[in-house]
Design a protein that fits this description.
Helicase, Ruva Protein, domain 3; Tetrahydropterin Synthase, Chain A; three-stranded antiparallel β-sheet; about 55% helix; globular
């Protein structure tokens, strides 16, 4: 093997290592994604993320009856949250990755004050009321403006729609989807509660 081939192999190995660190995907998945992306790391991340979404979609219907309850109390003990996160097996529930996800979700709830887990939890009446409030604020504006503001409201009050506190370029649902792709099981946030002194 000459120096040029060695350098190419080394740079390929570095790309695979970087891609694994960013996505948590397996070595072979990273190699295939890099080959498909022509060596473009950003494109490879997108390819793996798309595959992760496909994996998550396939697993969405599977029962998630195991898991754990995680709590987070912010420094000073004045605010905290507790969350139930479910997966398919006790084995996955005991992994560091799943525990880390549950901990991050408890921190997210403490910091970002969501009111609902998902859009589906919002009652038709509450949604109609919010739409009416926004429409009144934007009188004379096109319907697209109302829908845009409604989307922002979802990002404030729905846990899965919120920007993730550790990486605001992703939403909480993206973090869960990435974890589903890595652990190979359906994961669901079942419920949560947030507590603050005096509230």
């Amino acid at each position: 093997m000459d120096a040029k081939q060695t350098a190419t192999t080394t740079s390929q190995a570095d790309l695979v290592k970087d891609l694994r660190a960013r996505t948590g995907a397996g070595v072979m998945d990273c190699k295939h994604a890099l080959a498909e992306a022509g060596g473009d790391l950003e494109r490879a991340v997108e390819i793996l993320r798309a595959k992760g979404l496909a994996v998550a979609g396939k697993k969405a219907g599977r029962a998630a009856s195991e898991g754990l309850v995680e709590a987070y109390i912010h420094t000073g003990g004045r605010v905290g949250a507790i969350v139930e996160v479910n997966c398919e097996t006790d084995f996955v529930a005991r992994t560091d990755e799943f525990k880390r996800l549950a901990h991050d979700l408890a921190m997210q709830i403490t910091a970002s004050v969501p009111q609902y887990v998902s859009r589906e939890e919002i009652s038709a009446d509450a949604l109609a009321e919010q739409r009416k409030v926004i429409a009144a604020e934007l009188t004379g504006k096109p319907a697209a403006a109302v829908e845009g503001k409604l989307e922002k409201w979802y990002q404030e009050v729905v846990l899965l729609e919120q920007p993730f506190i550790r990486d605001e370029s992703k939403r909480v649902r993206d973090i869960i989807t990435d974890t589903i792709a890595r652990v190979g099981e359906n994961i669901q946030v079942r419920r949560f509660a947030r507590f603050k002194i005096g509230e």
